[in-house]
Amino acid sequence: MHFSLSRLTVGFAVFVAFSFFYAINSISARDPTSVFFNPRKGYAPRYSAVRRQQAGAFISAYDPATVVKAGDEKKRKLCVGIPSYNREAAQYLPDAVGSLLDGLTPEERQEIYLIVFIPHSKPEVHPAYREHWLSGLADEVLIYGYGIDRMQYIRDMEQKRKFDEKSLFDYSYLLDRCTELFTPYIAILEDDAIAMDGWYHRTIAAIHEAEQQAALRRAKPDFLYLRLFYTEEFLGWNAEDWKHYLFNSIYVAIVPTLVIFFMRFAQPTKKLSLVLMTRRIFIAMYAMLAVFILTYFALGRITVLPLPVGVHEMSQFGCCSQAFVFPNTKARELVIYFKERHVGYMDVLTEDFADERGELRYAVTPSLFQHVGKRSSKGDDYGKMSKWGMSVAEKIWSFGFEKFDWRALKKEHEEVTKMRHQGQQTSASG
Question: What is the pTM of this model?
Answer without folding.
Answer: 0.86
